[in-house]
Amino acid sequence: MIHHLNPAGNWTDPLTAIGTLAAVFAAIFFFFYERIKNYLNRPILKLGINFYPPECHKTTGSFNNKFANAFWFRLYVTNKGKSNAQNLEVLIEKVDKKTGDKWITNSAFLPSNLKWTHIDVPLLMNLQPGTTKNVDFGYIYDPIVSVSNATNNNLPSENNKIDIVFNVSISVIPFTNYHVLQPGEYLFYLIVGASNCKARREVFRVRFSKEWQENETKMLTETIRIDKYK
């Protein structure tokens, strides 16, 4: 039997193999290219605090329908990435209180969302790259509730004494008032997250005493301090 070679047929299998390999390599390249591009362009969230006005400042608030001096404290969230962060939340995971030399977890404090400043809701729909939004953290009222505009508001002019407490600005006020903290030193374990990026965890230390200072600088240095822990 005589076999006749087909010169053209000899190139068919090598060309097919090369084409298949090229297609595989192209698919792998684009697979990793898209993921690398998405990673480099991802939102990157930062959670911090500027412990000075206007984010932490003296103001006037309403307590039991009476006007009182108060100090308001806000955190900030910055998107340091290259794409929009979507559906952002800031959650208090847990709170520890310093007792002696130990940190004891406050078992009554449930995981709770903070509220975004001015919009008063726990969910922020969008945060563009390079922009910053504030989230309310908490507030302290003057232990002596100073009533102003009493005549205009039909309020009694006498002062009512209350204890100095730190009110955490969670989105839902609980019946048990676990968000109201007595003077002491606390660790807040916070999470800031979005639906399209990795969550970030931070720990903030809150220290405050029973003293009240009318002077804003003294209040923010001698009575209360909020900063990152470690």
Strand content is 35-45%
* Helical stretch tally: 3
As residue ranges, the low-confidence spans are 146-159
Structural class: alpha+beta
Radius of gyration, in angstroms, nearest whole number: 29 Å
Strand segment tally:
16
For the record, give the distance between the C-alpha atoms at the N and C termini, rounded to a whole number. 86 Å
- Major β-sheet annotation: 7 strands, antiparallel
Helix content range: 10-25%
Mean pLDDT: 83
**SSE order:** HEEEEEEEEEEHEEEEEHE
Q: Indicate the overall shape.
A: elongated
* Total number of domains: 2
Protein described:
About 6% of the residues have low confidence. The chain is 18% helix and 43% strand. The N and C termini lie far apart (86 Å). It is an alpha+beta fold and 230 residues long.
Short description:
The chain is 18% helix and 43% strand. The protein has 230 residues and is an alpha+beta fold. Strands 1, 2, 3, 7, 9, 12 and 13 form a seven-stranded antiparallel beta sheet that branches. Strands 4, 5, 6, 8, 14, 15 and 16 form a seven-stranded antiparallel beta sheet that branches. Strands 10-11 form a two-stranded antiparallel ribbon.
Q: What's the layout of helices and strands?
A:
Layout: H1 12-40, E1 45-48, E2 56-63, E3 66-79, E4 85-99, E5 102-105, E6 112-113, E7 115-116, E8 124-127, E9 132-141, E10 144-145, H2 150-153, E11 160-161, E12 166-168, E13 180-181, E14 184-194, E15 197-208, H3 216-223, E16 224-228
Antiparallel strand pairs: 1-3, 2-3, 3-9, 4-5, 4-6, 4-8, 4-14, 7-9, 9-12, 10-11, 12-13, 14-15, 15-16
